[in-house]
Predict the 3D structure of the following.
Amino acid sequence: MGCCNARCWLITGAVFGAVVAILGGVLIPLGDLVIEGTVKKEAVIEPGTTAYDNWVATGAVVYRQFWFFTVKNPEEVIQDGATPVVVERGPFTYKTRYLPKHNVTFNPNHTASFSLPTVATFEPGMSVGPDDEKVVVLNLAVAGAYSLVPKVLHIALEGMIKSSNSSLFHSRSVKELLWGYTDPLLKDTVSLFENGTYDGPYNVFTGKDDISKVATIESYKGERELTYWDDPYCDMINGTDASSFAPFVDKTKPLYFFSSDICRSVSASYMRSYSLKGITVYRYSLLPSTLASPYDNPENFCYCKNADVTKDCTMAGVLDISSCQQGKPIYISLPHFLFASPSLREQVQGLSPNEKHHETFLDVEPTTGFTLNFAKRIQVNMMYGPSNVITVLKKVKDFTIFPIVWMNETAMLDDATADLLKEELVSRIELLATVQQTLLGVGLAIFIVCLISYCCVRRSANQGKMA
């Protein structure tokens, strides 16, 4: 009788264990569905969601750090045709993009429009010196005029350069070069960047009707395509503005984003996963193919605008953005001509590209698609070339793409935001996973122990009957 009761209890225990294990197994897809539904709901850009709160106002402070290439031998370059020698000076740091999006408007087609304020405030405590410090760099006006003025009028340009006492290089303060000064040659304001203006307007999908399109740019400045490159492929506006992406990121696929700083869309590829303040993120970086020579990456042919300067489009590592800069001969590259043709570094001494310090990357939380850390690093260069008429260019032997400054725009989520994200998302996912695994493990353990015990009890009972 006792043996029978023991077998009954063991059968009951095995059934109970099986039920618990099945419950744990069922909770895995059920829990995933709950998480997916919650994330998709909170990822929509509309008032009241987590995505909206992070989207409308920058959650982390964005800084722009600038390093200038100071020319050490300007006179030797002009008089003797010596190779320019530069020394990096920086960082000069500004807090920027810290204001909420401007003029946010929600539209009937599940899009939202806005503009981005571009206000920069100097941060002396994070800088190598004051921003009124002077540096010797390429003269923006002389280089610009050389490209914009037809060669038949270079004799007139020579007269203007002499009368304004201008030269190929000049000394200006960091503040002047970044945000503007009145140039004696052009008698107009010249600057590398803008302060106190707006970028946009942008129009992006809210994800209300299709979460896979959330934050994707629908139009920029009222246009669904760019007008800079005269080519349907290069003029495409792809992806988001890189501040966020659609949830449930697939690391086998690249992330696309548009950057108005370089006037084009690019893609970043998955590199590795790591823990950022206790949160698992995917590191995405730009590949060398992004600015590769069109002969190495045929997709870049439509970005080649000047065959003479780029040696019949065989040069890698630079992007001519003059078409979106009112004709100014500005070339964008990665800092220190990272991943660029060796000839670019041979024209200037003092450059030292380093992938760790000069690459552009994004750290994306894969469940929400939020960018939690990034570094956008670009270098501004200008072009000048030889001339038989202009005195300061007579010793120049070839077209030169000359580095002026490189910028690191960076931001990382702060500790408070990291703790909130862990509390609202990571900890709940981990708790659900723990419950699932515990139920599955305990249930299987109970089932196996009870099953083995039942078999042992039954064998003992059978042996007793035989005796």
Q: What stands out?
A: Residues 16-28 have pLDDT under 50 and may be disordered. Residues 2-40+425-466 form one domain. Residues 68 and 405 are 4 Å apart (CA to CA). The two ends are 17 Å apart (CA to CA).
